[in-house]
Write the structure tokens for this entry.
Amino acid sequence: MKSICVFCGSNNGSSPLFAAAARETAKLLVSEKISLVYGGGSIGLMGILADETLNLGGKVCGVIPESIFTKEVAHAGLTKLHVVKTMHQRKQLMYDLSDAFMALPGGLGTLEELCEILTWSQLGFHHKPCGLLNVGGYYDSLLRFFDDAVSNHFVRPEHRDLILTDKTPGALLHKLKDYRPPKMKKWIRKDER
């Protein structure tokens, strides 16, 4: 594994646990010689993650749309910064540059990016591992939602299992490295309903 895309908030959040998790993730990536790919911002958890990775000598690649870049929230000191036209291009390029995906705490953008990459996996567009860092139980309700979606037959159990979770960056990275994509089919025949 050479690079991981990390989705996370453009705010720090309410708990110091979130910033601590971003710093711990940065230290882990640098110690494992894994490059960081992220949204290119200089603020919030994104900024903390990028700054810590750079301070420790790691490589950081940001991908940011022009509309956000012009608002002066782009990180100026990255190893590489790609400026793209649209959010769709941003997500595609982050996908292309990454071997795995991890979500730290964040808001709607973080959730949207994570769910899109999970959907691509569910549809068989890729077989890269996807992880969710559940710091301080932040994602407990989202994980319950995923379980409820399985119980209500909107998500198949093998698709629910596409999201790897843990409370610490080290344990989650271990799961991402050990990931083996399941053999599955997306579509259900009418006689299986």
